[in-house]
Design brief:
globular; 4-stranded antiparallel β-sheet; alpha+beta; DNA-binding; 222 residues; 11 strands; homodimer
DNA sequence: CGCACACTTGAGTAATGTCAAAGAGTGTGG
DNA sequence: CCACACTCTTTGACATTACTCAAGTGTGCG
């Protein structure tokens, strides 16, 4: 929100606040369903959200884990391109689309901000395609841990330990692996003293440099 | 280009044309390198372009095949997020970024158009993540053929036969497979009379319905 | 305290990758 | 014009990674 609102002047900020609505949800609540009419855009205030797509037989691909400050439902299309579920308890702000569009027309700087956000997401999506299509299980998990770590840093927090509010199954569905493979690779990293699990489901990165080497595919002798 | 320019009035269209520069390239020419300064945006006029990311050891993930009308280098970031190479001979229009930005400021409708394009690409990227992370080789190839077919239709052409200007290796690098697996699945589809190869490297979809069923993961008894 | 639920670990399997060789299509120079 | 050389493709045999199925171990919550 901060980065979004900072493009708005005082007067327009008041208008932005006027159209915003705060909502709370318990963990595991389904927040959006792919194909539903996209009548609002949301910005996460607290908690973790997963966005995902499903195949007919139930196979799931999580396309992103979203944290406070991230947008859900970013699309100019009529319908949501993905489903969303609360991983933890979640609070978000709702921007009714029609009101938001009027505001965007009046404040072009907001539109440019949204374009910037969308093109960043596009770059992240391409990075994820590289991961899904070409990386091994080890490389995927190392990349995943580092991505979360960098995200913590960008949010102004320490790069380690990292909170892992999602299950092994969710991590697998994000990386294109099974939960068993995720567990096995984590165990391997733990045995090799590259990570350590802490209480409350968080992970400490004991050797970020080694993880970065693995993540980039130089996994030969490691 | 048409869809982009149609958001511009006559006077502004003249301005748009004034900043545009047409360029030609032979097949296999490297057009952009990931990490290079993003000083221009491009719109393809003729030919096929692949955009891709590389790992240190040479593994490649193609994140998109782009055709006439598509944009290359769409990013607000300082640097290109991907490399690009001409699959066939290519012609494109260059929009110097600084001049384009001035134009975008003057014509907010253009910016909204770009936001729409970016959010469509985001939806396509998520569909591709589902494919890469969760679909089998058969499902991937069926999805790929249908995607190209739908793209032909949207461009106002017949949905079949489809031109396949890229190599099996490129298709594999797009779908997260090896070229051998691509070839084997194509052979299987051909034996099952779902597709037929025509002269000049194009494919006819003999049974689009069956392919659609396979693509969506209902591959049980097929 | 005990019941879920998530996680870990093991054994065997299946899908896809790797290595290899031969065939088909295309362009070029003798 | 044909033969050679090149690249791309197909197909086969085998290897490997990650998946499936299964059992057992925490761990937190009611």
């Amino acid at each position: 929100m901060l980065s979004f609102c900072s493009a708005v002047g005082d007067h327009d900020l008041a208008r932005l606040n006027a159209i915003v609505l705060s909502e709370d949800f318990a963990a595991r609540t389904v927040l959006l369903v792919e194909g539903d009419e996209a009548e609002s855009l949301f910005n996460i205030t607290a908690g973790t959200v997963k966005i995902y797509k499903l195949l007919a037989d139930g196979r799931q691909q999580i396309t992103g884990f979203l944290f406070p400050g991230d947008f859900v439902g970013l699309a100019t299309a009529e319908r949501y391109a993905y489903s969303a579920e609360a991983v933890t308890d979640v609070t978000w702000c709702r921007f009714p689309r029609r009101k938001l569009e009027r505001l965007l027309t009046d404040v072009p700087a907001l539109e440019r901000r949204l374009l910037g956000i969308a093109s960043n997401e596009l770059a992240a999506a391409q990075e994820q395609m590289l991961l899904l299509g070409r990386k091994t299980a080890r490389e995927k998990l190392a990349s995943f841990l580092l991505m979360l770590s960098r995200r913590m840093e960008r949010a102004g927090r320490a790069p380690s330990p990292i909170a892992l509010p999602m299950t092994r199954a969710d991590i697998g569905d994000y990386l294109g692996l099974t939960l068993e493979t995720v567990s096995r690779v984590f165990s391997q990293f733990r045995r090799d003293r590259r990570i350590a699990f802490r209480r409350g489901g968080s992970v400490e990165l004991l050797d970020p440099t080694a993880l970065a080497t693995i993540a980039e595919g130089a996994s030969e002798g490691l």
